[in-house]
Description:
The complex is a heterodimer. Chain A is an alpha/beta fold. Chain A has helices at 45-52, 74-80, 96-106, 111-124, 140-151, 170-185, 197-200, 220-226, 232-240; strands spanning 5-16, 19-30, 34-39, 60-65, 68-69, 81-85, 158-162, 189-193, 205-210, 213-218. In chain A, the strands form 2 sheets. Chain A has a 6-stranded mixed β-sheet, sandwiched between helices. In chain A, strands 2-1-4-5 form a 4-stranded antiparallel β-sheet, with helices on one face. In chain B, the strands form 3 sheets. In chain B, strands 6-7-8-3-9-10 form a 6-stranded mixed β-sheet, with helices on both faces. In chain B, strands 2-1-4-5 form a 4-stranded antiparallel β-sheet, covered by helices on one side. Chain B has a 4-stranded antiparallel β-sheet with strand order 12-13-11-14, with helices on one face.
Amino acid sequence: MTNDIIIHTEQLTKRFGDFCAVDHISFDVYKGEIFGFLGANGAGKTTAMRMLCGLSLPTSGKATIAGFDVYKQTEHIKRSIGYMSQKFSLYEDLTIIENIRFYAGIYGKSDAFIKDKTARLLQQLHLENEANKLVGSLPLGWKQKLAFSVAVFHEPQIVFLDEPTGGVDPVTRREFWNLIYEASATGITIFVTTHYMDEAEYCNRVSIMVDGRIDALDTPVALKHTYNAASMDEVFLQLARKATRVDG
Amino acid sequence: MHSVIVHRLSKAYGKKKEIKAVNEISFEVAQGELFGLIGPDGAGKTSLFRMLTTLLLPDSGNASVDGSDIVKDYKAIRNKVGYMPGRFSLYQDLSVEENLNFFATIFNTTVEKNYDLIKDIYIQIAPFKTRKAGKLSGGMKQKLALSCALIHRPVVLFLDEPTTGVDAVSRKEFWDMLKRLKQQGITILVSTPYMDEAGLCDRIGLMQQGQLLSVGTPGEISAAFKQTIVGIKANNMHQLLKDLDTFSEVEDAYSFGEYHHAVMKEHFNEEALLKYLEEKGNSQIVVQHTQPTIEDSFMQLMKQ
Lengths: 248, 304
């Protein structure tokens, strides 16, 4: 982790009609940081993430992602980031090799780069013997580890992970976090949402969104101290209970 | 008296039946018990629930629900169980109220007759009763689905991953609702991938790759973990984990929130551990003795 700012937002806001989904959020994320982006369902996380990925234009405020402006340089942003989520990550009816080639190709990587890196990746994940199997036939945990590796294959500056470990068994969930640590050590910034509060502890810093605002942002240790809580779970519950928005 | 009896129940998929989704599973659930099936995606929880709710035929083995056989007496079972599938499956283009009336009607009853059972839950979505179900938020959909699964006053309720993808606050609320339902005498079978929800059940079954790893009360399962677990943190947690992995007296080490958990071999020496970690360059080392949790047990059973 360094002091170089890789994500910068200032009063970033998104309205849908008279509903303020993201309400003047300002924060910085540093290069190589593992940044946990928490919030209850409906707090505005997805909307905020869509703006940061260049997929949705803000209503007002400023943001730069890897130095690129979220209003004018969305295509540059998309090239500089990787993305994976629990709901969609890889094409189930393509093989492992085909998925890697497809994603790397979209990001404009050369055949030589793809070939060399694919071999190393398969070895790292112990998937050499499965390389020509359909992704749909892999257990969920393997799929998610592979999806993460594919999301950082083109060596993006930032990778956005939207609940990447939902439903994954506890052993594989930890292997997944090892991949996160390794990517972070190479300088890739990790921006991650999760419902597992033990995973919040693994982040360098954590923000907690409530009703579209960022109500808390600090290291897990400092947050527990501030809220006089034994765990991040307690910190989260204290903050999220203040929500007045009706999510039902 | 047992409300659910499962005996060597099996279900396999694939051309050669090579995918053993449920593999010779046996367990019992007592009347009025809150029983949790804990396991990751792909463990076989949904296949098991679908067999017990008569939506899927087993390949072998047998099971009964409230005294009725899941194959021969399927019609009787359908009348007396409630089932909330993992995926929202109410009618999206009917309103909240219409969905509830519909489910009451197909079970030959009325909302009024059983309203006392769902009142606590339904009252929270009643302000939106004219809204189409498809337009509800996640939390509201979940409450409506639970109301619809209860409206015919089932004797056994099956809830398949009701809290998956739900935030910590809504999860807590949902479990509070289950506790109140349990007081009404309904037997509840609930599945979840979240290990921390295990402690909220009377008894649990840990499930992985089609098999039950262990069945018992949360206390019994934690107590079956015999080794000492040491919780350790230090200045660099990633490095600390690597160092723990290579220490001879550590049987297994993994991250566990703020502290790492190190499962120690018998008669380990804490001073030697500390000395080793310091020599490896770790600083600000904090060690605390830790009670095993369900998640520790699950991982140990998984690795065996």
